[in-house]
Amino acid sequence: MKNNKKKMILGIGVLLLIAALLLTIHHLHSGHEHSEHEHGEVSTEMTLNNGEKWKADIQTKRFVMAMIHFVEKVSVKENLTKAEYIDAGETLKGSFNSIIANCTMEGQAHDELHKFLMKLSPNIEELRKGNLETAKHALEESKNTLKLFQNYFK
Predict the structure, then answer these.
(1) pTM of the model
(2) What are phi and psi of 52, to 5 degrees?
């Protein structure tokens, strides 16, 4: 049973990476350029659109939902190893990069998405380090931050 869970988690991670690669290739051919460095420093305090959720593009929603499902599956396992935390961080980083690469959102909705991503980024980086003392907390924080998406975006 343990082996099946590992295979399932690994399979999900591989699927996310393949999807990220395909969307990135598509994006490169579309001529739209978008990088995380062009945005400068932004506050991470998120706001609603006059009390309503912001409209997110379909690619962003797909990647975030995949990340949510991935983190939920990984976080139910007890005593993750350093390698498993690193793998989880790498999988999330792939999806994170794909969100940025495929972003078609504009205006304030775009700005709010980047606030969300900036809340998520430090936790992903902490997972990628594989430090057993901090990675468990980073995984839980990633899970909590990902849940915010549904509070602010539709």
Answers:
(1) 0.72
(2) -110, 160
